[in-house]
User: Fold these one by one.
Assistant:
Number 1:
Amino acid sequence: MTPVRVVISGAGGCTPLGGSLAEVGTALRAGRLPFAPSRHWPQLAVAPVEPQDDMARAPSPDAALRLLGGWRHRHYCHRGAQLAVLAGLRAALDARPGSGTEMPCWTALLPDDTPLLLAVGPMLDVSGEPGLPPGDVSRLGALWLLRWLPNTGAAALCRFLGLHGESLTLNAACASALQALGEGFRRIRRGEAKRVLVAAGDSRLSEAGLLGYARAQTLSRRGPSCGPRPFDQARDGFVAAEGGAAFVLESLEAAMARGARIHAEILGFGASSDGGSLTAPDEEGRYAERAVRAALDEAAAAGMRDGPHWVSAHGTGTERNDAVEAALLERLFVRPGTTASPAVMALKSRQGHASAAAGAVELLTLLAAWRTGFMPAIAGLEKPCSAHLAFVREESPFTGPLGLLENFGFGGQNAALAVRLWT
């Protein structure tokens, strides 16, 4: 039986570099970096989505933002969940054939049995919840608990789009978004679903969110407007970001039959667990490598013979994570007698670390970069930690359409996705 080919036929987001592929591409071409001082910790840089307070106040809202902004219950979704919902609405709109400039009928955009896989971070906007226990509980809203439930964003997105299929909320730390994409890929590949909506969103820019990272000593201390320096010998941590991105996945046959625009094809997926430290990666990267090899093996079986041409590395900019990942990439791709690996990008250098949404935000950025025709350079990389890896040091054309995305998270969560970008 011929395996089902799985493609991305809709993409949308709300990232520090923009909300659409066109906006993100424009920001990349301009070399814009979105880093700014944190409201709560002015000495730290963050990468926010604008506007930072209430997305309903955006000066030029699109149809998706008008829908979410006009919903009187939106405050029951915490910031990260709202970003996921907004991205999901935009991806559903993008999946329509044609220009789609007319006002959408939201519940007609996707079949009502479309499964939803949502990757979302935890509720960390503690300072925005007045009177949380053990405070004055009489000040709490009647449904205050909804902001703390992981599936509230999924419930909202299903409500807006009229979805009644499987709804699954995932949280696998920084591997969450790639895990959700992989689960969606598997469902279509195995014939369990014809179409899947995958959405991701997270925000750790609240006082409590940043405090957690600061206490763990994982944040860069370069300055309030400076980004991280992945794979640089002088790297000192990551810069926290927020963002959301979402994708409609379906079979190639179904997408072509309805005249959909195809952004990319998913070729393989792998996931694993270190089963060790709650925070630090396995020092030898053994189980992260297992996830990456699984994705590459599945992609090879699907016809990826000469790739990957490039790698979108997890590249947080922390001392230990970058060292482990660089060694992993050397083992996988640097052979005796060769001088270079596939091109290695580190997109967190350009838009920060979006935690549970990182993989989706980075995939959206790659789609935008592919449209612009160049791979974004790793910002701040002056002295690479490896002489054997082909880090992208300046804007250059893509070395090919075949690529690998990697994300590794707290708790030893590892995920990798192999893709083919489409013209």
Note: The chain has eleven helices and 13 strands.
Number 2:
Amino acid sequence: MKQNKTFVITISRQLGSGGAYIGQQLAKRLNVFYADREIINKVAQQYSVLEEDVEPHDEKILSFWESLFQFNSFSSDVYTPPKLFVPKERDLFQAEAEIIEHIALEGPAVIIGRCGAYVLRDYPNLISLFLHGDLASRMDRIQKLYKLSGPEAEKMIAKSDKERAYHCKSITGKVWGDAGNYNLSIDTGKIGLDECVELILNYLDLIHVRD
């Protein structure tokens, strides 16, 4: 890869692999824009819905929307609020994709999730990462972050993995955890999160992304 300051790093990650932390540290060390909740917020604004209604569902099939905006039947003399637009999974993906593309055009950035590697697959200076880990290390992190029991953490991880894999396949046709779909795949449980940050920075130097 030729040296170019307009690179974009996308991070796809398993729950509990430390993707958000690693992404934040990379953005800080590289002094570039970090995009995570910002994407969700912009999509929420576009669809005029609450951010918390979008966030838990943006990476899985959104049958949730059909039930969220159902209104009870009222008699003709009672005001019935107008039905809200109910975005489908692909509507949300398209909106997020447009935001991701805009961010990439604006300058260097680290983008978490949202099938960023697929959205920017033709971007000339894309560095796509997949972060994963063994179940034990992921469970340990989730238990500490969310104060969960072991069985609760394991259930949360299994549910997340299934949903993210299904979303990726349904939207992109790609296998979510296939290392061949990314430039670099790292087992964060083997070396630790801060060590992963250093590894990625060294990788960027090897491909001449950084000055």
Note: The CA atoms of residues 62 and 89 lie 6 Å apart.
